[in-house]
Amino acid sequence: MDKGIKHHQVGEAVDRYLLIKTATKQIASNSKAFLTLILGDHTGEIEAKLWGVSPEDETTFVNKTIVHIQGDVIDYRGRLQLKIASIRPTSPMDGVKINDFVRSAPLSAEEMLDEVNQYIFEIQNPSIQRVTRFLVKKHQQAFIESPAATKNHHEFMGGLAYHVVSMLRIAKSLTQLYPSLDPDLLYAGVILHDLGKVRELSGAIDTTYTLEGKLLGHISIGANEIAEAAKELGIDGEELLILQHLMLSHHGKGEWGSPKAPVIREAEVLHLIDNVDAKINMMDRVLERVEPGEFSERVMALENRSFYKPTFHKKPLDL
Amino acid sequence: MDKGIKHHQVGEAVDRYLLIKTATKQIASNSKAFLTLILGDHTGEIEAKLWGVSPEDETTFVNKTIVHIQGDVIDYRGRLQLKIASIRPTSPMDGVKINDFVRSAPLSAEEMLDEVNQYIFEIQNPSIQRVTRFLVKKHQQAFIESPAATKNHHEFMGGLAYHVVSMLRIAKSLTQLYPSLDPDLLYAGVILHDLGKVRELSGAIDTTYTLEGKLLGHISIGANEIAEAAKELGIDGEELLILQHLMLSHHGKGEWGSPKAPVIREAEVLHLIDNVDAKINMMDRVLERVEPGEFSERVMALENRSFYKPTFHKKPLDL
Amino acid sequence: MDKGIKHHQVGEAVDRYLLIKTATKQIASNSKAFLTLILGDHTGEIEAKLWGVSPEDETTFVNKTIVHIQGDVIDYRGRLQLKIASIRPTSPMDGVKINDFVRSAPLSAEEMLDEVNQYIFEIQNPSIQRVTRFLVKKHQQAFIESPAATKNHHEFMGGLAYHVVSMLRIAKSLTQLYPSLDPDLLYAGVILHDLGKVRELSGAIDTTYTLEGKLLGHISIGANEIAEAAKELGIDGEELLILQHLMLSHHGKGEWGSPKAPVIREAEVLHLIDNVDAKINMMDRVLERVEPGEFSERVMALENRSFYKPTFHKKPLDL
Amino acid sequence: MDKGIKHHQVGEAVDRYLLIKTATKQIASNSKAFLTLILGDHTGEIEAKLWGVSPEDETTFVNKTIVHIQGDVIDYRGRLQLKIASIRPTSPMDGVKINDFVRSAPLSAEEMLDEVNQYIFEIQNPSIQRVTRFLVKKHQQAFIESPAATKNHHEFMGGLAYHVVSMLRIAKSLTQLYPSLDPDLLYAGVILHDLGKVRELSGAIDTTYTLEGKLLGHISIGANEIAEAAKELGIDGEELLILQHLMLSHHGKGEWGSPKAPVIREAEVLHLIDNVDAKINMMDRVLERVEPGEFSERVMALENRSFYKPTFHKKPLDL
Amino acid sequence: MDKGIKHHQVGEAVDRYLLIKTATKQIASNSKAFLTLILGDHTGEIEAKLWGVSPEDETTFVNKTIVHIQGDVIDYRGRLQLKIASIRPTSPMDGVKINDFVRSAPLSAEEMLDEVNQYIFEIQNPSIQRVTRFLVKKHQQAFIESPAATKNHHEFMGGLAYHVVSMLRIAKSLTQLYPSLDPDLLYAGVILHDLGKVRELSGAIDTTYTLEGKLLGHISIGANEIAEAAKELGIDGEELLILQHLMLSHHGKGEWGSPKAPVIREAEVLHLIDNVDAKINMMDRVLERVEPGEFSERVMALENRSFYKPTFHKKPLDL
Amino acid sequence: MDKGIKHHQVGEAVDRYLLIKTATKQIASNSKAFLTLILGDHTGEIEAKLWGVSPEDETTFVNKTIVHIQGDVIDYRGRLQLKIASIRPTSPMDGVKINDFVRSAPLSAEEMLDEVNQYIFEIQNPSIQRVTRFLVKKHQQAFIESPAATKNHHEFMGGLAYHVVSMLRIAKSLTQLYPSLDPDLLYAGVILHDLGKVRELSGAIDTTYTLEGKLLGHISIGANEIAEAAKELGIDGEELLILQHLMLSHHGKGEWGSPKAPVIREAEVLHLIDNVDAKINMMDRVLERVEPGEFSERVMALENRSFYKPTFHKKPLDL
């Protein structure tokens, strides 16, 4: 019923709950402090300025606070901005909870977990299956909640699991088209490839890199998780080496963060599938609010290209 | 019943028909001329030396001649070589024909053409459908016979059509997984993307680049074919621009031969699918004779990598 | 008598007609709208702010409007700015016309066309001559008016034709110095090489890229124009391939937008001449207002270099 | 007394024991098999051809066999070659053992181990000290015998430990010159940085890469060794992360095999020291037989440079 | 006793002498002129705005003026700023002199010169020693005062000499560890390598590049200084070539400004030592005010990395 | 009358004087020594084998010897080879001299020197003129004889002067087309730019790099020559800096050997002209023996391209 913040137009009045994503204190040219707020709900974000803030305001309107706001949407230098008329923090009486204000995957946690487990079930090599099952179990909660990145693609709650599910579906269709591919390696590789992100990233809201993430990176964390899982399960042999290789090589080459380039057929295919899903996701995200006949903003992670939506393609749903 | 030349081992006697793929005259250290022959059938190739040739021999044992040979397979510096005991050219009496000695696609020409036409049938935008159908019709024979390249991948008779069919199948599964993708653009892009190769390459046997191929390249040839087809069909409008853009951008970036990088979602996906099919094909080809537990030769087109076949994968079928 | 806007110094009063090149609405920190205007005449441009604009102002002071302005030139953060005292739109009564406010080539359209036609006349190969003559005729008006780029070099009315004329003169002197060069190919290559820009760019004022320009680029557009011209004229043969090759390869390599690197002597020389004229033009433009003994601003298109004008070189003419 | 094989000149007779480093079967132009032998002792290597070999010879003169040879040193196309007059395999009666024929570090195993342990003793942070001590103990034998590489630098028995000892000495002098450096981290980083090579390489003679080495690489192996050691010792905390980071980043950047670039001061310095020792070692090796006033052969790993020995530098000792 | 400007916290009152490093006039949105001042003492710098300046102010508060200021330290958009309450220029009566407000090397000029001369004394080759001594003498004053760069590393008074002294100490320890290195070449190379900077840079305060520096660069200037010194001293021979080669190659490769890559062992080592000292200096500078457990700002000259200070390292001294 | 060695076809008898360019001893598979000779005259070169040579032969048939040869031209693995029937060294009685067997510039030394001096005469700035005149005088003989390179372009006697003359002619036409260019700087830059080659290269026959060339390179040598000339002539001032800058920057950027990129208009144009003349010369050389309708061999220095000669271009003169 209620359309989200993403769908408000310039000139519309706003009267709703919003989550403070980030709050940054700045000093205006009149030397008074003000806050730049990034406010969001499950559909998107909008910037707002809170002028002339008191020290008390600074401790009230922080990161991860849900507030109630009245105001108008204005156009400031070509970007939408929310002009605040009134703002108040919420209490339990408001009956609002943080998860309702966070973007999340189009599938539920249960659906995604079921689907991943179905693929694990199809893995026939017992060593590969056991390591994969063990690690998904071990990190189940984080696996199902974590985003796949801090920005660019799948940067929402459940993004990691959703990225894995999408890749598994591509993997399945490729194993049907190319009988030379080993589904065991490909499924296990897909399911595990970004698992290190549950330790590299700080969680689903206001996601940042952990110290471990910055010093080791999800690829090395993930390779180590596999080694430890195998030790705990008493599994050894070439399967173990190859699972680690799939993990280490999935970024394709050194410049992109992989200490080893893929030298197993399924490792190369894992890298290609990762690319396909990430790139389609990035383009979808940037094109979803572009009108037919227009170009999108530039996408840094896609060589800074701006994408065109043909005039004979559909208008975005909610415009 | 009769295994092909690829399956002969060192020490085996050979008594069979073979096609001369290339014949190169050289001078031995005793100042006598000899020929280095690359002999092949539908399964592969082997090198042979024909020592002490007369001028008459030089004009008899040329390129695209079928010969009957007796001899032995030997190991020369780590590579197989056919030591010729006797050799004779064939006559119509032998009842052998050149097409039986050439590697070709695993699907028949009819099967491939049917499948491509089925996809054309599914294209709903009439401009896109008509241009695609027109060009496949116009070049039908060459399209069905041409290799997709002179080396690296799909370098066999029918390789171009087979490459297209494989890509269409991936395209279909991606359009099912990602509803944002426009199947019309993707199918048309896949079918047309390498069509310029029918003028860039010299045909199915002993394939080389034509002068036009060297001066213009299949990408520019293809874009021009689309423009001419549209003119002939009286088609104009954005569809035409976009079909040409799909053609021009399918190598992804300037360094790889595309004068424009993809700026349409389906153009980027076309490039990604092309990559997936080409790379899997290259890996399959190089791994198909590698024993489990061994590394392949290096593959120049895959960053000079050598690929490993896990010990728990199957042995090649014919070893 | 009347010096242009480029020659006004800080502190001088301004009372003159100027063309609005671009008008951009912004919001000041007091939440009021203002316009940032780029105002120009045939000598150059200056920025101005129009504060506190009404909705009516926004529709009056737009792109391509000639206005009459009174004000002062000030220095704002190291750059000249025009401080507006009064501004009014013009009517036919003012007797001013847009072409007088646009930078244009130092030669007249007729002079340039005459010179180009003289070179076409000197081409001896009939196929090459006919295609060249046909295309110049077909696009004559646009060819004579179009800039050669949106920025960097020859970005003024008639810039394309002027760039061609300058290159033809270099080409002529090189064919005299190097008898191995074929003047026919070189002249035709020079005349046609940027012709695709008449469809890639939107025209002489407020030049932008067309959709066709963004999706195909002037190189592919140009190659297609040659192919169509040849078809219409019934011309075939190697000349046609080579003219297209000259077009496709004139940026020198893939990274610079050419799908083929030059493999014809004259194609390489065409690329070199294009480079020489473009680079000298860029340096002239940036150095023309630099005082002897000073460095210019940085030039992005020349590897971000800043150029030095020796103290023993002449002062700019109008300082 | 007895000079090594490296010091024989063209024309000298040879009558000595030598180790077959590699033996490769080839076929001569007369179709007879011959062996190309790389023969060596502790000073260097020389090539020899063994003509007309029988099948029995092929199984006798293999890899890692010590043979007794009589013959002459000749010059073959600018390189020294040993022309074999007689050759026989050795028996226990000959009283020769393989280690005497292998190049090894200039320090004894005991000396190197003592020095490394002394540095471990100086590490004051208990977590860092314990992990370092544990891993050196765990792999002590391999650590003391392994080369540091298969070629380029420190490619001899004990090369790994010798490389570590040299780097420790540089590290010590740098910590004295730059008080900001933490000796604990630097010493531990130096001692552990290449430890993964004990699993990446196959050992001291005829060194090759193991499967694990090819699929994971010594950097990832080493990071995993640290993680496991810490687990076994019950050590956690930031020291553990940082030791792993030192390991992961010591090649400096992605293109050179490090999944993370150094972001700790000591990690950057570790990378720099590794570079200094490796490069000096490479230059020493290539210059050690160059006459003053001459240029060396090209060194691939040093950007293919050829190094010059000044005329006022000393002649090589054994010329 | 009196802590420097670098150590003032937000909210602290400031009442002290400071040097104007740079003064830049700007226009505020109310059209009034203001000055942005970079104020500094020997410990660091802080930005301040001087609002509403008169033309007289503009000529008073310029570059290299010592002023007395009262005000407060505030936080402006995350950076410290000095809010000026009162400001006045100083007169001789204030008894302050410019050198007290400039960062300088941790060793005195005499100490550094003594140490350099001691190394010159140790050079045994007379040609090398005489050229080195001559050039240090010739440029002694500038050598002892010049910074080593305008930013990044050793960018303070005496920075050049301090950089040389640090490198000499590393050079000494390397010649002890690696007997193959020639101390004469290494010491002379270190002492002379950046000498051209005395002509490339404008001096110790507000350092900029000279015209000669911009057109020729310190490497070519230095090589020419050596050639002229040798001529004046009547020195010829290979030593001269090699000293020039050390100079020309010390940046390691073309992209980094060296017209020749090192092809002498000591030239390569000179380049490596230069790197080690510069990088440690850059990291020290950026980490010196970072709290344990925090990351530094990004360092452009170190591939834009941000460095981490471990929690178990010491707090900065003056926090 | 007598056609040169370049014009002999396979099968023709040869009976003429030839110069031994290089003589390399090798060992045949029968263990006998033979010489590989590169024989040449003023038109080109041909390879020959001299089998079964005695030690005396080895000292007779060396580098820079003129021999009389009888034999036949044969085709060996696709390349022409001279099969020697008889060979003898020449004596003064033969009346042949070495200069007749060396390729040289198409203009005489006098013509070239006159033309260069004419351009020097046109230089109006006295400082620039005097330095230029002084250096041409100082190295006049070497300047007139030296090749411009050891391979690739202008690699013949007088090549350096011829390269300069060609560039001067281009420079003259550019200064006529672009009045902004300063002819003084451009002419002096052209004349001096490669002068360092008289010390970098060993002379006109069997040209190699000198030690000075390898350690310093012609760019630094040349900059130093200018500095010394100016000192000797008592010339100072900006002209001197700029002449050195023209020298240092004429390769365009660091990767190509210039320690400074051009930052003077004429320096950039000098680099462009150098490029134009060198590239046209390389293409002319490689195309001069290519038949119309054929591709040339690949040219390493032109990005490994193979060039096409159109069918409508002329056949090479002497085929």
Give a short synopsis of this structure.
The structure is a homohexamer of 319-residue chains. Chain A has 319 residues and is of the alpha+beta class.
Helix content of chain A: 40-55%
> Radius of gyration of chain A in whole Å, from Cα?
22 Å
Number of helices of chain A: 11
Give the rounded overall mean pLDDT of chain A.
92
Secondary-structure class of chain A? alpha+beta
- Taking strands numbered 1, 2, ... along the chain, how are they ordered across the largest sheet of chain A? 1-2-3-5-4
Oligomer: homohexamer
Specify which chain pair forms the largest interface: C-F, 42 and 43 residues
Verbal overview:
The structure is a homohexamer of 319-residue chains. Helices cover 40% and strands 19% of the residues of chain A. Chain A is built from 11 helices and 7 strands. In chain A, the strands form 2 sheets. A 5-stranded mixed beta barrel of chain A has the order 1-2-3-5-4. Chain A starts with 12 loop residues before the first strand and ends in an 11-residue tail after the last strand. Chains C and F meet through helix 5, helix 10, helix 11 and strand 7 of C and helix 5, helix 10, helix 11 and strand 7 of F.
